Amino acid sequence: MNLLLSVVGVIGVSASGPLMAWIAAPALAIAFWRNALGTAVMLPPALTTRRAELRAIDRRALVGTVFAGLMLAGHFATWVSSLKLTSVASATALQALQVAFVVLIDRLRGHPVPKAVLVGLLVSSSGVLVVSGVDLTLSTRALAGDLLAVAGGVFAAAYVVTGGTMRQSLSTTAYTTLCYCTCAIVMLVVCLIGGQSLAGYESVTWLGLVAVTVSSQLLGHSIFNHLLAVLSPTVVSLVLLLEVPGAALLASVFLGQAPPIGVYAGLVLVLAGLVIVVLRQPSQHAEAPVD
Fold this sequence. Notes:
Largest sheet: none
Shape: globular
Number of helices: 13
Number of strands: 0
Radius of gyration: 18 Å
Structural class: mainly alpha
């Protein structure tokens, strides 16, 4: 069952980049609707099956979960924006550097970092330089997209680290509902302040928003939040690396985005370094509420 869920989750998150790059709506509006629709789906079961848990949530768990939602908002705001400026392959690979930032956060928290992990980070960093160098020769617009994707990885790392702690005491349903809701509220405020159009789209755009919510939010993020209770973070992180080639393949087939050869070389280096990092990370898995 876990293997099947992992496969479904990878397919879901792999579709995220291509779908959001294709949707004809402002980047921040996409981020809002994806989380708002996700909240709408998660809220009924949360209120019916987790009402007691939500009522009993303590201040520490609430603050931590809200912070995770803020980091998720930062991730979506930067990464979805990057998809409008650079290729899906580059944006997905660079935001996957979140693993490196997770290691850095752990180091700052006093956790030892194996030498092999540092080697992996150097390999990934060289891949980032290759991808960014290729994009710089293409346009400064693409380079700006790359930088936003890296920022998206930083926010994603903070989201994952915080979520890993919160999931030890909160169920998948309660945690994801509160996270998505917080993220949606933040993105709504940002869209209103920035004058982003939140409605008036063509029907095909609404279908795209529903599709990215179902595939990437519910069958992607939510599934991996669930798997964190039964699989170690190391295994989940390794599985998530498959999003990079998956998104690149989907973007090439459906969007006609065939990156230069240099980008593929950079992607290989990024993936190789991240695999080293994930495989050499000590497992810190503990039992958590499954649902």
